[in-house]
Every structure is written in C-alpha cells, then in structure tokens.
Amino acid sequence: MTGNSRFAVSVHILSYLVYKQGAAVPSSEIAASVDTNPVVIRRLLSALVKARLVNAQKGASGGFSLASAPANISLLDIYRAVEPKPSYGMRNFAPNQKCPVGAKIEAILQGLFFKAQSAMETELGGMTIADVVAQLRPICSGKR
Amino acid sequence: MTGNSRFAVSVHILSYLVYKQGAAVPSSEIAASVDTNPVVIRRLLSALVKARLVNAQKGASGGFSLASAPANISLLDIYRAVEPKPSYGMRNFAPNQKCPVGAKIEAILQGLFFKAQSAMETELGGMTIADVVAQLRPICSGKR
DNA sequence: GGGTTTGTAATATAATACGTTACAAACGGT
DNA sequence: ACCGTTTGTAACGTATTATATTACAAACCC
Known about the structure:
The structure is a homodimer.
Chain A: H1 6-19, H2 27-34, H3 38-50, E1 54-57, E2 63-66, H4 75-82, H5 100-125, H6 129-136
Antiparallel strand pairs in A: 1-2
Helix pairs in contact in A: 1-3, 1-4, 1-6, 2-3, 4-5
Chain A binds a DNA duplex through residues 3-6, 26-28, 36-40, 42-43, 45-46, 56-64, 91-92.
C-alpha cells in the first residue's frame, strides 16, 4: 500500500485499545503486543492523538485510550492520521520538460493516481475499527 | 501508491511509444524523455516485454515498440508487470503471537489490504494507455 | 516527592530505489 | 562477413526512507 507499516501497526494499536475496553494502556504494553519498541508506538500514537482518535494520559497509571466508539473510527481516519505524504508513486519522477510527452505526462499521472488513491480510500472509509475487532472474536472480550 | 516510481515511469514509457507511432524506439531516446539513465528504462522494459506489452528488437536500428493497440493495454496490466511485491503495507509487521490480538490481527489486516488494493486495481483496470495518450493531445501526433 | 508515563530529539542500522559503469550477446545494414 | 548499434543484465555506489534504540525533559497520580 505505502511501503511502510505505519497503517498496519496503527490498526493493531487501536484494536488493542478496544480489546482493553477503555482502560488506560501504556505504550510498553502495546509494544509487547506489536513486538516492537515503545517509542515506535508512541510516535504513531502521537499522530493518532493529534487526529483526535485517541486520548493520552501522562503520569503513573496513565496511558492511551480510544477517544470515540470503535464504530465511529473508520480505517480511512487512521490512514489519514498516520500516513505521511500524498506524493503517490512519483517520488523522484521529474521528466524532461523539453519533450512534449515529458511536459504533460506529470499532470496526467497525478490525476490518474488521485483516482486510484480515491478508490482505495473509499474502500477504507467503509470499514471501521469495530469491523476489525468483530473479526478478532472469539478472544476473551471480557477478561484480563 | 507504492513508494517507488516504476509505475509512473512505465506509463510514461508506453505513452512515449504510442507517441512514436510504432517506430522502434531505443532506450536512450526514452531515457531522454524521462530524464534518467537508459539502463533504468531497459530494466522496466524488460518487465514489460516479459508481460508481452512491448516488443524488443536488438541491433542497429532496433528498439522497443508496443505489442498491442493502446486501447488494449490497461493501466492494471502495466501496474502488475512492473510492480514487485504484493506484501502491501506490512513489510516488517510481525506481531507477538502470544498476544490474542497479535495472533489474529495479521490475517485480518491481510484481508483488509486485499480489499483496499482490489479497489485500486479495479480503478486502474478501467483505464488504458489510449486514455492517457488522449490527454496528451494536442501534441504533434503526426510529427516527429 | 517519587515513581511512572508521555513526548520528542538524536542517532544507528537496515532495506529499498535509483543511478551508473561495464560488457556480453544479438542484430541489421552495407 | 564485418562493424557499429542496441538490448540484456550483472555489479556496484549513493541517496532516501523506515524502523529500532537510547536518552531525557515534562507532566501527572498517588
């Protein structure tokens, strides 16, 4: 999708928060579930907090919790919160402007990528974290 | 879209071949239009030849030409020919299998990415190189 | 006040992509 | 049949990006 795994990890994070049922979950615990470093988790959560998808609480017995009901958080919300640049597929594409093809192809490709990207985003917009968590059952949704 | 610019350059290449109206075009000429090294172009063309979208001709006065009519080459054909790995967005995502969330989230995400990817590919499948070239007009479609 | 946690900077390491050089093999024109 | 041209591909260098890790200030609860 994008080369990195920020979106995948973010969906994992939010699913874990749902799993923990509103408790304040520290980054270290989430990191253990994702199997990575807590700082990596906090960096993603920083973006998710800015997007108002998650609440953060500092200090002892602090941690992270969802800011909305799972059914109100679409995967597109997450995608847009953590995915950086919309320079889709044209990182270092700079054709020769003196060539009649090179001069016009860039704008055409941008429109083209926008359509492809929009199709994908529409798909992501139709799914929520609640849908993802529904597929996680049956895991002890009342225990722990 | 994918982080690299192989697809963008490939669409440029095929558009250029249409622009040259069936003539055998050497990689050096295409490279000048894209503004990169001829080897980069040949590497992509190697994949396009394997996918039977392009014909290659060695030797003096050789070069590349389209293997089909522009209207018969979809952008999805190109995308699949040159885009490498379908490990969409999960490059190094390997959650903790001992955690009930980590153990199941991977398969869920794969299904999710597949749906998002399919939506994008459907969009690409609905467009052809002929559509792209149509947007290039008016460039001297009969001149050199 | 003390221990815990977030927030973020700085740095290291690995993966990936693109650019470049080099050269063998195939081919066409003369 | 030769000679210049072009493809095809390997090998290597460099830049960019992503993730991991260490470090530490700031905020917070008990």
